[in-house]
Amino acid sequence: MLTEKGNVMIRVGLMGYGKAGQAVAEVLRADPRYELCWVARRTANASQACVPGTDIPLMGLDSVVFSDWLDTHPVDALVDFSQPDAVRLYGEEVRKRHLMLVSAISAYNEDDLEYIRSLGNDARVLCSPNITLGINFLILAAKLLRTIAPFADIEILEQHFREKTEISGTARKIAESLSIDGERITSLRLGGIVGHHEVIFGFPFQTVRLIHDSIRREAFGTGAAFALDQLRHCDNGFYTFDDLLMQKVRDQLIEA
Ligand SMILES: NC(=O)c1ccc[n+]([C@@H]2O[C@H](COP(=O)([O-])OP(=O)(O)OC[C@H]3O[C@@H](n4cnc5c(N)ncnc54)[C@H](OP(=O)(O)O)[C@@H]3O)[C@@H](O)[C@H]2O)c1
Fold it and tell me: Which numbered atom of ligand 1 lies nearest the CA of 106?
């Protein structure tokens, strides 16, 4: 099938239909570049065979042989918002069928990561523990500003809902990517804030603040859709979100 712009629509299978997966399914379904062909969860739910309000199959991996499922329900890409162990189930199909893979799983161990990197020998693979476009752009912009102004003071402020006990992993990732100490992170816990990250650059005569606010989980879907669109122009390989964003920035600079 073709999109309105004459490009071939990418057929997508989504792994995971939990809090994130449900939001991602909505975004992919509404995006004319993609055809969401099916959604997989761990366990079939007899009363919910389709994504609500659609005829898109919602199947349980406990009730199918996955390679047979792919034979009858072919896709060009998998998007994974399930759990770390799922990659062992679909990985060899990604390799054999040269499927694009966007994995958003945040908690892979080193063995899993090594395995996923190996899939990049035969397929286009993106793996990102933080898949929101906004946070990845904030990190890119902050790294650039740090290079331009290495003398500026930098502090990171993160704000989240009252119940979140630990320091935000995203804030730690920002600190790491700027090579600054984790002690420079200030955490505030207030009411129901979904997620606020702020990088403050203190110059002698001016202050620059880079701010990202999370609003809804659909932002994960926007990131996955961006990653798929960038991957379609890539060679086989293992990519981070940063790689894809940089590629986009380079393309824009060349066009400008
Ligand atoms: N990179 C990012 O920015 C980002 C953002 C958000 C979430 N995530 C990641 O996305 C994942 C899901 O998060 P969530 O909050 O949506 O979790 P969740 O609500 O617990 O949902 C997990 C979903 O995955 C399914 N599942 C579990 N194991 C599976 C397997 N082996 N194969 C296929 N499906 C399986 C579950 O099936 P059932 O419905 O049958 O239980 C459920 O639908 C987590 O790994 C999280 O780290 C990443």
Answer: 47
